[in-house]
Hints:
Layout: H1 5-10, H2 38-46, H3 60-72, E1 77-81, H4 84-94, E2 101-105, H5 110-119, E3 126-130, H6 135-141, E4 146-152, H7 164-173, E5 177-181, H8 186-189, E6 199-203, E7 217-221, H9 223-237, H10 243-253, H11 256-275, E8 280-284, H12 294-300, E9 307-312, H13 317-326, E10 331-332, E11 342-345, E12 364-368, H14 374-388
Parallel strand pairs: 2-3, 2-4, 4-5, 5-6, 10-11
Antiparallel strand pairs: 1-7, 6-7, 8-9, 9-12, 11-12
Pyridoxal-5'-phosphate binds at residues 83-85, 109, 156, 181, 183, 203, 205-206, 215, 217, 335.
Amino acid sequence: MKDSLSYILNHLGEERSKYFNAVSPPIIQTSNFVFDSFDQFRNAIANEDRSHIYTRGNNPTVQILRKKVAALEKTEDALAFASGSGAIAAAVMTFIRSGDHVVCVDNPYSWTKTLFNMVLPKFGVSVTYVDGRSLSNIESAIRPQTKILYLESPNTATFALQDLNECAKLAKKHEIMTMIDNSYCSPIYQNPSDYGIDLVLHSGTKYLNGHSDVVCGFVCGSHAHVKQIFQFATMTMGNILGPAEAALVLRGLRTLDLRVHRSHMTTLEVVAYLKSHPAVDSVLYPWDESFAQFELAKQQMKGAGGLFSIILDTDNREKIEQFCEALNTFLFAVSWGGHESLILPFCSLLDIPGHPDPEVPVNLIRFYIGLEDADYLIQDLKQAFEATFPSLS
Ligand SMILES: *Cc1c(COP(=O)(O)O)cnc(C)c1O
C-alpha cells in the first residue's frame, strides 16, 4: 500500500493535520524558521538536511516533493534543485576531485556534455565517452582513476540504451559510483535503483512537472549519498528549488502516471503512422520492434513515453525545414515532457557560430508527443507531408 503509486502521488509526505487539514499542501513562503530552545536548535543543526532551519537547506513544501520523488525512484532520499542541469552538476561535483576520471556514455544531454568537456577539465578531471550499447566498451574505458560511470538510458537524441544491471555490476567490481539521467523514462517507466544504480538524476522540468511552467531537477539516492551532496553542493552552490515552484511540481505530479501513459499510447499510434509513410526512412523509438535494442528496452523499462526521432528520406535541409514549418500543431521547440507536442529538427542546430554541431544525422527530427489525440496529430503530419513531398503522399 505505502509503496503503491496511488499512495505516493496522492498522500505520501503530506501532513494535512499540520495545516488545517488542507488537501493541497501550502506554499511555506519563508526563508527562515525560529526555535523555542537551545536544544531544539542544536537538534535541528545536527540534521540540517531534514530539519527546518533555513530554506536554502530545507523547506516543508519542498520536503513533501523530495519525499514523493524519492519514493517514486525507490531510493531513501532525494534533493530538489533549481534545474535538471543543476542537479546533475551537484551530483557529479560532489563525488570527484582533481586527478579523477569519468566514463560517460555517448550523446548525453548537451549541458551535461559541457559540464564534462568545459567545467571539469578546469579542476583536473578528465572524461572518456563510450558507446554504452556494449559493456565491453565501458569496461575498456575504465582506469584506476575512474570514479564515476555516467549513464543516460535512453538518451534523448538517438535513444541508445545501456544494460543497467550489467553496468551496476561492473561498476561495483571496480568500486566506481554509477549515476543515470533517468529523465527519458521518468520513474513511471524505469527505476534504475532496482538494478543497483547509485544515483538517479532527473530533469523535473520534463515529465515530473509536466506542464512546461517550471524548471527543476532531482537527485535520488541513499541517505548517505544525499547527505554528502547536500553538504557539498546544495548548501554551498545554493541552486535550490523554491517553495512556490515545488508546489507547482506537486500539482504536476498528481497526474504523472496518467500523463506518461497517455503520451506513450499516443506515441505508439503516431509511430505506426510515420513508419508507414514513404517519406520516412526510419523511426528511432525504444518501444518499437524495429529498434536495435528493443529486447533490452522491454527487459529494463516498462514503457517509453513520448520522445522519439525519425530519419527523413532526404538530406536536403531545405526540404526538412519546409516539412517542419508546414506542421501546425507540433510546436518547434527544445525541451519536452509537457502537454504540448513538439518537434526539434537537429539540422536547425548546424553551423551556429560558437555552438557545437549535434552528433546525429542531418535528417534526424526529434518528436515529442504530448497529451493531444493521436488523430489530431496524425492529420497535421499528413498535411505537412502532402505539402512537402507531394509525389510521395
Ligand atoms: C532537459 C534535460 C536536462 C536538463 O534539465 P533542465 O531542467 O533543463 O536543467 C537533463 N537531461 C535530460 C535528458 C534533459 O532532457
